[in-house]
Specification:
This protein is an alpha/beta fold and 190 residues long. It is built from seven helices and nine strands; from the N terminus they run E-H-E-H-E-E-H-E-H-E-E-H-H-H-E-E. The strands form three sheets. Strands 1-3-5-6-7 form a five-stranded mixed beta sheet. A two-stranded parallel sheet has the order 2-4. Strand 8 and strand 9 form a beta hairpin. Helix 3 packs across helix 4.
Length: 190
């Protein structure tokens, strides 16, 4: 699912916390009601020249925190952001040790490239890389293939943190939770 920030706001320059809160409300209203499987929500910044940190904090970060904090099936991804917008996002997330997932989408909505905005802590990065190599895994499967002697609880904590950041999706299969990278191997969270 792709939401054009340019279409919603009607502007190429996005500034100020109040305007950011307005976009946040629009994004919440745009969420489909009858979805139960994990899916990426692409916040398409194509056509946006500038977005200030205060605007992005009140819109994009709030939206990510809202969707992940309430354990909705939605995982926001920044799409087609200009270098100016990326710079503002970096300024926003780095002091918080936060991370956002971003990508480049083509006209058909196909993911061409992904990148992280911000820096993952080393254990989370290693967990994400291992999960990316496996494609999908539970905490106990990661424990079994992980190189060090880490308990399942520690794997669960790492996976929960990555899920809260919106970098991986969680699907429950009975009592087991399976995790997969949000944007991987042609599966874009659909």
């Amino acid at each position: 699912m792709k939401l054009s920030i340019r279409d919603i706001t009607g502007s190429s320059i996005l500034a100020g916390a109040p305007s950011g809160r307005n976009l946040f409300a629009h994004l919440i209203d745009a969420l489909p009601k009858e979805i139960d499987s994990a899916r990426a929500i692409f916040l398409d910044f194509d056509g946006i020249e500038v977005a200030t940190a205060s605007y992005l904090r009140e819109s994009v970060l709030e939206f990510r925190d809202y969707t992940r904090g309430r354990k909705t099936p939605f995982y926001p991804v920044i799409a087609n952001a200009s270098p100016n917008v990326i710079d503002e996002l970096v300024e926003l997330v780095q002091p918080r040790s936060d991370v956002l997932l971003s990508c480049k989408l083509d006209e058909e909505g196909k993911v061409l490239r992904t990148r992280l905005i911000g820096v993952l802590e080393p254990m989370q990065k290693a967990t994400l890389e291992l999960l990316s190599n496996l494609g999908e895994a539970s905490a106990s499967q990661l424990r079994d293939v992980g190189s060090d002697d880490i308990k399942t609880t520690a794997w669960n904590n790492r996976l929960a943190a990555l899920c809260n950041l919106g970098l991986i999706s969680e699907n429950s299969m009975g009592r087991t939770k399976l995790y997969r990278p949000l944007l991987s191997g042609g599966n874009h969270g659909h």
